[in-house]
UniProtKB/TrEMBL annotation:
This is Riboflavin biosynthesis protein RibD. Its EC number is 3.5.4.26, 1.1.1.193. Residues 4-126 form the CMP/dCMP-type deaminase domain. SUPFAM superfamilies: Cytidine deaminase-like, Dihydrofolate reductase-like. Pfam families: dCMP_cyt_deam_1, RibD_C. Its cofactor is Zn(2+). One of its GO terms (biological process) is riboflavin biosynthetic process. Transmembrane segments: none annotated.
Length: 368
């Protein structure tokens, strides 16, 4: 049974869990608030690298017995299995909490329903489903990795008002302003990985690193190139940021290129061919198998189109500038060739706001 302040405290737990987005994979980013007599005793969230878990982080701030009779608000069902650390459900039981409020269940077979059952068997009152929709939105990547074996995919598009990403001569820096570019860094910060296609890697020589965001964990840098035609100079090959480099390539990629990147510590992932390039459904499955929960695709147009065609795009974040480049400009998407409007992917607007001189808009997969 819910109580009047349950949503208030769960909203706080969700905001704490959000601090871990992009930092905790393959574990979920969970938040926890421990409350007693209307006062917050402790706050916790899953720490960088996935441990300690949110409940353990919060409980570690309290003296023995301090949580006795308290209520714990947790954004995901507490784990019930022993991994590198003891189960969080056991930790809550040992702490003597009287009630646990959970936003949403954990579909992991090792946990699903068992965490709640452990708490109830210990005489703890359990209330589930408080702010569940909000929690499932935040946990979308983790939930998809468990149920569909793939991460959530966000496609970022920064373009002119008429959907172009460069002039006819290839000039693209900068269509959007500095405030929009800073928001892109914030997007990178809450994703596990940043992904681009081989053509973008060759033409832009991007670093794909996180800048201006403090000491947050660097995202994995992913390049998709069937022939492994990735520049062997520039930031991806030469920088010392410590950000991992993963290369998705075809099964027939040249051995010489494989040897070069292996020698530089890159992780190579072979993916079956599909259509004109790689099978992007298989590619996302491989990334999920490797533990990623949230991937941000930053281009180019061919990769974006192939992800849309494979129905792998869950969110689209657009940055639109008030500039027109015309039909000769480079389009933000490659060819999709849908025969009718009903065949095209459709997204629904989640939010929009002005960012500097540009507009940032977030669209979510449309569910009829």
């Amino acid at each position: 049974m819910t109580k009047p302040d349950d949503q208030r405290w769960m909203a706080l737990a969700l905001s704490l869990g959000g601090r871990g987005l992009g930092q905790t994979w393959p574990n979920p980013a969970v938040g926890c608030v421990i409350v007693k007599s209307g006062r917050v005793l402790a706050r916790g969230w899953t720490q960088t690298g996935g441990r300690p878990h949110a409940e353990q982080h919060a409980l570690s701030q309290l003296a023995e017995g301090a949580a006795h009779g308290a209520t714990a608000y947790v954004t995901l069902e507490p784990c019930s299995h022993t991994g590198q650390t003891p189960p969080c459900a056991s930790a809550l039981i040992k702490a003597g909490v009287a009630r646990v409020v959970v936003a949403t269940g954990d579909p992991d077979p090792r946990v699903s329903g068992r965490g709640l059952a452990m708490l109830q068997d210990a005489g703890i009152k359990v209330c589930a489903g408080v702010l569940e929709a909000e929690a499932r939105r935040d946990q979308q990547g983790f939930l998809l990795r468990i149920t569909d074996n793939r991460p959530v995919l966000t496609l970022k598009l920064a373009s002119s008002f008429d959907g172009r990403i460069a002039t006819a001569t290839g000039e693209s820096q900068w269509i959007t302003g500095p405030e929009a570019r800073q928001q892109v860094q914030a997007l990178r910060a809450n994703h596990d990985a940043v992904m681009v296609g081989g053509s973008t890697a060759r033409e832009d020589l991007p670093s794909l690193t996180l800048r201006g965001m403090g000491g947050r964990r660097q995202p994995v840098r992913i390049v998709v190139s069937a022939s492994l035609n990735v520049p062997q100079h520039g930031p991806l090959a030469e920088d010392n940021s410590g950000a991992p480099v993963w290369l998705l390539h075809g099964e027939d990629a040249p051995q010489k290129a494989r040897d070069f990147w292996t020698a530089r510590g890159a992780q190579l992932i072979a993916v079956p061919k599909g259509g004109a390039g790689l099978d992007m459904s298989a590619a996302l499955q491989a990334l999920g198998q490797a533990g990623l929960t949230r991937v941000l695709c930053e281009g180019g147009g061919s990769l974006a189109a192939s992800l849309l065609a494979a129905d792998m795009v869950d969110n689209v974040v657009g940055f639109t500038a008030g500039i027109m480049l015309g039909a000769t400009g480079l389009p933000s998407l490659g060819a999709l060739n849908y025969p009718a409007l009903d065949a095209a992917p459709r997204f629904e607007l989640a939010s929009s706001r002005q960012v500097g001189a540009d507009v940032m808009h977030h669209w979510q997969r449309f569910v009829s």
